[in-house]
Amino acid sequence: MSDRLYIFDTTLRDGEQSPGCSMNIDEKMRVAHSLATLGVDIIEAGFPIASPGDFEAVHRIASEVQGPRIAALARAHPKDIERAAEAVKPAGDRARIHTFLATSPIHMEAKLRMTPDQVVERAVESVKQARNSVPEVEFSAEDAGRSDMDFLCRIVEATIAAGASVINIPDTVGYMTPDEFGSRMGELIQRVPNSDQAIFSVHCHNDLGLAVANSLAAVENGARQVECTINGLGERAGNAALEEIVMILRTRSDRYDIETGIDTTKIVPTSKLVSQITGMLIQPNKAIVGANAFAHESGIHQDGVLKHKKTYEIITPESVGWNTNRMVLGKHSGRAALKSRYETLGVTLDADQLGAVFERFKILADKKKDIFDEDLMVILSGDSEVNMERVKLISLHAASGTKDAPVAAVELEIDGEIHKATAQGDGPVDAAFQAIKSLVESNSTLLLYSVNAITSGTDAQGEVTVRLQDGDRIVNGQGSDTDIVVASAKALIAALNKLPNMHAREVHAQYSGV
Ligand code: KIV
Ligand code: ZN
Asked: Partners of 376 in the beta sheet?
């Protein structure tokens, strides 16, 4: 019988730590439901002590998401652990606390200013405290890759004895190479006397592009939990990409006789959902989930694939969820069909949400022939933002061409009042942005503007991502429409709505009447 590898998804915790990737609670709920449908074993839902919003997200995920275990991150501090325990409590016997403490000399000396003895003592106390409040405790030796091997063995043995049933060995700074990391894992399992009482886990960062290779090396040497993220999101260069780990194990089952519980046909829809919510576009040549991952351009390759797919394809696109996403519903379809389609995408809608989404679906179905799963996710995102909108787009008219300067006229509702402005710009999008900026006061600066055609055809919905920075805060806004200028205005407004320091401008006469 083949071994089982547990997939611990940390998109909502380490992934959310990527600059510009922060998600609101509704967005986290959608990702969490989709991860459950994908079949991950553990969802790391967040870091409850970090903010009330993080606490609330973990608590709601623990209350509402069925199936996977729900983990909350906590530093090895009593307050962190208390807060984490409270947040994951609704998950009952699926609740896990993931507590961590650094074990490398540089982290212990320079960051923690603690001696190795103090670190062991604190780790043991924390595991015991956590074990008194939840059924399952994971301990991570932060920066294990650069830790002294004897010390690592000592702390791992002590934390297992204190009640940790999962021991995570992170390569926190992405410094390891596969050979050395694999032997580190093997040696640890072999030397720690009580290692049979815990599952060993791996958590690799991608600073040198080795996160997946290092994770696999650890699996080859006995790790049975991999911590990873959708699309490889995560701190700095990111974490090991879930889709790559899972598809390597499956495609090379001749080498790895190890199974996961992942429904691989849900990989692409989940990847697109995460990309759309976070605004982190997927590079076209990204393995498994990139738009070109299955595109054959050269004539020789095309000829080969036509004759026999296996000449150049080691994975079928359908097996990871490509090409299975054409929406067969049309404008005559009913609510039940729409609801059921959302369920296959991992989204459960209550009656009110379904009503609102259904209205948007009908409007879109009137405008375009083919509705794809991506369209449905966009419809959904619009709906989830409705309640938080302080600024709403009432109307937009833009004109551009080869002769006259591009101009845009916008009408916005800001905190319940109607404001109008007209502005010129370096193109219709710029004109629309100038007009909006003349009405909305914000100190933010534009970090990113990107346009993506999310479906095919000239009637495709264009999806625009706008990233704004206001002080320390970085927010993303997405907008989609068959008209790219409207999509851009919606994206800017969605981002502005996420900034607390944003108001209606009192004077905007210099922009009007252009
Ligand atoms: O990279 C890391 O070491 C972490 C720990 C909290 C597991 O993210
Ligand atoms: Zn990490």
From this structure: none
